[in-house]
User: Fold this.
Amino acid sequence: MNKKLEAELKSEIESLREQNLLWLPKTLNGPSSARTKVAGKDVVMLCSNNYLGLANHRVLRKAAITAIKNYGAGSGSVRPIAGTMDLHIKLEETIAKFKHTEDALYYNSGFTANSGGLPALLREGDAVVSDELNHGSIIDGIRLSKAERHIYSHNNSESLEAKLKELTGRAEKKPNRILIVSDGVFSMDGDIAPLDRIVELAERYDACTYVDDAHGDGVLGENGRGIVNHFKLEGRVDFEMGTFSKAFGTMGGLIATSKTNKEYLLNKSRTWLLTGSHGPATVAASIAALELLEKDDKLVRKLWRNTRYFKKRLKSLGFDLGNSQTPITPIMTYDAEKANKLSVRLFEEGVYALPIVFPMVAKDKARIRAMITAEHKKEDLDFAIEKIEKVGRELQLIK
Ligand SMILES: *Cc1c(COP(=O)(O)O)cnc(C)c1O
Assistant:
């Protein structure tokens, strides 16, 4: 072990600790569900992305067990060599059917879809125009590309149009291809990108579109098909990227697109070519998740009923919930110390919700973030609301 290295790393860790930015992840002592045990304590879970309760759903568990019986525990290889099982193909067909696209490509995670897909699409001489609040995996994907980079103001179509006008009106160095990239639902505020306006502008300026629907999958659109379905834009978005790690309850990234775009992406994404593929259990459970949603939108409707109930009650108590339009519910404190205190006190009371502070959001936009799921019973929500009210008064967030 190199002592100098360790001393340097230790001092960086201390600096994070002093700024209150050090992660000390708590451990779950059971499944990810609405009521579970965290760090030995029984809690109502308010910070999981398991929107539909699929992570521990009977149907997905059964599909995973059957797949292990028939195919084993691992895939044995990367996808291009010997790691493509008929299960992987069936999953991609199921994604395409669910998303109403020609085809789809399954990656190991949403992160690797963005960090491998974007640099494959963005070559030297191209330009990318990206929302300022896009997810870190998009930022990394763009950093790995050779294209020129432009950032537009958050959800601001005038700012986007100004960039497109400048790029397409150039006499020299006009980019070959322009790709507009946006999150569908923004994970810190729960607001929805104006994808209808973005697509209109893309069509007007002959640009391409790439939307990251990690928090829209399973949440927006009919049967949870996502943001493109929500805005009735099917067939007009080039790349619909998403994840299985949130509402779909398992693991893996997806890009739903045309057959040609898929064939190109799988040949050029290093994060698809050079990493072992997911094992049978994950893939089979992912298929089961989409088939379940295809058949029945009951869970999606329950998610929205719970969301409306929770937000209405908190609003009537006087809490400030920011600009959320989705089950992501920020409870604004505008102060990092208050956000941390609120989270610590709620945990003591049996409610698990995490603070969101700088650098995840601006310094004056601190909050805790509550994630509502279809699995929460009315009693769970009432319990959480009662505790949030109690601690909110202690911290003088409400009167
Ligand atoms: C969670 C998330 C990802 C990463 O997805 P994983 O499948 O968990 O790697 C990408 N983009 C956004 C917007 C996300 O919220």
Summary: The pocket of pyridoxal-5'-phosphate is lined by residues 109-111, 114, 135, 137, 183, 187, 212, 214-215, 243, 245, 253 (CB under 6 Å). The domain at 58-295 is CATH 3.40.640.10 (Aspartate Aminotransferase; domain 2).
